[in-house]
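Session log. Operator J.P. requested a structure for one protein chain; no other inputs attached. Running the standard single-chain path with token output.
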Amino acid sequence: MRPLQSASLVDGGIEGDDHFSPGSIRQVLLIEQETLIRLGLSPGQVKENVTVSGLPLMGLASGTRLALGPAEVEVTKECEPCSRMDEIREGLRVELVGRRGMLAKVVRPGVVRVGDPVSVLEPARGTD
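Structure written below.
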């Protein structure tokens, strides 16, 4: 992982990313900066693609659409912490349960820059 000042989000995630996968529901991993701070971690350390601040991500329903600067992503599911988290720090996997971040797919491409606003565009639709 290396920090970027900007990244082009396209169907598949970020070109050049090891997990780039067009059509996948796991294209982009977002995590809250507040979570990283609480756990004493640096941005990128838990392999997230995008770190956001001021927007509670955990618990957003699948289907929620977010604006990341000019790009748009759709939340697909919560990211469960894997055993690789314990390679970063023993016990981190357990610490990240329920706050590992949310996976999303790109629905509108765009170049995202550090400091771009992040907002909920469209809450997930109910299943009446």
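Operator note: The chain has one domain: 6-116.
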